[in-house]
Amino acid sequence: MGLSVGLAIGLMQLARCVHPPAGADPLVIMLSGNASTGFFFVPVLSGVCLLLVIALLFNNVVRGRRWPERWS
Q1: Phi-psi region of 53 (alpha: psi -120 to 50; beta: other; left: phi over 0)
Q2: What is 4-63 written as a DSSP string?
């Protein structure tokens, strides 16, 4: 379990988008005993994509500004 959290935070550091509460996702997956790829894709990845779309719409349409300023 420690390895999964450490790996998740390490990958976030490499991507320069560290969000420590997101390290709980692999911990929840490991503790639930449902460590399948389907569990990762359905609640976690779909939730991330939905939040990204909402943030892009809110910041680019509703408020009239550009976000993110750059993708890299």
Answers
A1: alpha
A2: HHHHHHHHHHHTT---GGGGHHHHHHHHHT---HHHIIIIIIHHHHHHHHHHHHIIIIIS
Show me where the domains of the chain are located: 1-35, 36-72
**Tokens, residue 64:** 């009239």
pTM of the model: 0.54
Alpha carbons 4 and 44: distance in angstroms, whole number: 15
State pLDDT tens for residues 9-25. 888 888 888 887 777 77
Are 30 and 1 in contact by the 8 Å Cβ rule? The answer is yes
